[in-house]
Amino acid sequence: MKEERFAAPEGAFTRQVQIRFSHCDPAGIVYFPHYFNMFNGLIEDWYTEELGVNYAELVLHDQHGFPFVHIETDFKIPSRMGEVLDLTLLIERIGRSSLTLVIVGHHDGVERLRARTVTAMMSLASRRSVELPANLRQAFDTYAAKTAAG
Amino acid sequence: MKEERFAAPEGAFTRQVQIRFSHCDPAGIVYFPHYFNMFNGLIEDWYTEELGVNYAELVLHDQHGFPFVHIETDFKIPSRMGEVLDLTLLIERIGRSSLTLVIVGHHDGVERLRARTVTAMMSLASRRSVELPANLRQAFDTYAAKTAAG
Amino acid sequence: MKEERFAAPEGAFTRQVQIRFSHCDPAGIVYFPHYFNMFNGLIEDWYTEELGVNYAELVLHDQHGFPFVHIETDFKIPSRMGEVLDLTLLIERIGRSSLTLVIVGHHDGVERLRARTVTAMMSLASRRSVELPANLRQAFDTYAAKTAAG
Amino acid sequence: MKEERFAAPEGAFTRQVQIRFSHCDPAGIVYFPHYFNMFNGLIEDWYTEELGVNYAELVLHDQHGFPFVHIETDFKIPSRMGEVLDLTLLIERIGRSSLTLVIVGHHDGVERLRARTVTAMMSLASRRSVELPANLRQAFDTYAAKTAAG
């Protein structure tokens, strides 16, 4: 497979993940379910650090959940213990209650994996999807505009 | 979302997974990365129990890996602690070195999630994809024919 | 380290765990936190299958938790992918709200690991420990008597 | 249980762990096996960042493993999503091939959990324990001296 370059748009939210012994399988590379854990952590940090919306409070206080409705991932280049993987989060689509994100894993400017995830906002009490509240929608819009490629 | 019925084709490989406390998140439902772990376990059991090819030996003795190249999943209905989820494995496509599987999670005849996974056979030594050996290809063909819907 | 033999007392609750690819680390052996997951699953199955007390209902319906207060484990012999590990559960002590269990992992009559765990019964609402209810205490007593070495 | 204060000795290696959704169980608190994962990550970071010994190279290049021989943990106060847990690592004993560490989890000066772990240095090739090399022993001695309580 030929190498694909990746450069995050300016202003995009990127976090580094240290690849640890605990992530790796007998083949010495990241066991793939761990990536989904990393994605979930990235999304939490994005809410809290970038959007200024405390993710833990959304769940614990506001009693909202953000279950994954769909996820698709292309695993292009494996990662190994001791490496650092950069994860960048981009918005693809803002729906009524759903949010479609793209998460790109990259290292030294080369794309290693790419995921598209659809989460839906849900009330933990009613177990039904709820419309995105105005403050979240506004925060998503702002981030989407800021990171839209020129 | 309206309920979708699922009936496994006759002869299809199905295993039951007990949903445990350890699978569930603060919302009381399975935290989604655990599903990928379940898929991997299902595929291991399918090799060993259905195809008669010892998966551990493929890895440890033959030094072959089966990394995921692509995976996509629709999560339709959540599962809760104490429930039993049925996982059924079907073949979608047999490539030169790749295998495309469909895994359906269902409960009481209702589909709860559906995944499509592409794995590629790889040499752990050369870290390159290798052509599926004749015995595996034969086993895949037999299973695909057996489970093809009439 | 010299080999230690283990024979489960008659009537003891033993379950087999298939050691999977997902359990193993780059050294090819079980990554130790997975054992604690296995212990938790064993305890769940013991409640439900041996004691006749549905563990999921204890948590979800009765709103009781069983947090670990203490756990200690000796890891004696590693386990590898493709092996089957036998886990046997024994009662060491029944307290007012606590239960001390011994879990022995063994294979072909040889002890591989041994854990001692103390769990306390807790109300999820009050977050305080609660006295073991009579039916649980009775079930624990019966199991302890049944598995006491002659 | 009465609160126990904890103050890390000066110079002690402490890292913060963000408690995430993925760590928490249906009772809303950290599912205990995740703590062992955190301990392993802390030890890796301690080797690399504090001792100046690249942990990934020890494993991948030097082909050494550090399996846990024994671990015991007291869980005193649970941690919840959104909290930050401080983990401090101290040396208790330096053996011929083994290292006994104490790891304390604390928050706002209050001890939440305390573990004692014994790891042994092992050759991945021979699968036997090996004597600690001089550079590691020296690094351990220096750290132990530096963090010894006055």
Structure in words:
The structure is a homotetramer of 150-residue chains. Chain A is an alpha+beta fold and 150 residues long. Chain A is 26% helix and 33% strand. Chain A has 3 helices and 7 strands, in the order βααββββββα. In chain A, a hairpin with a 2-residue loop joins strand 5 and strand 6 (110-120). The longest helix of chain A has 19 residues, at 33-51. The radius of gyration of chain A is 16 Å and the shape is globular. The model of chain A has no long low-confidence stretch (mean pLDDT 94). Chains in contact: A-B, A-C, A-D, B-C, B-D, C-D.
Write down the secondary-structure element order of chain A: EHHEEEEEEH
Relative helix content of chain A: 25-40%
What is the CA-atom radius of gyration of chain A, in angstroms?
Answer: 16 Å
Largest interface (CB within 8 Å) is between:
A-B, 23 and 23 residues
Number of discrete helical segments of chain A = 3
- Point out poorly predicted stretches of chain A: none
- Let me know the number of strands of chain A: 7
> Could you give the distance between the termini of chain A?
28 Å
What is the structure about, briefly put?
Four copies of one chain form a homotetramer. Chain A is of the alpha+beta class and 150 residues long.
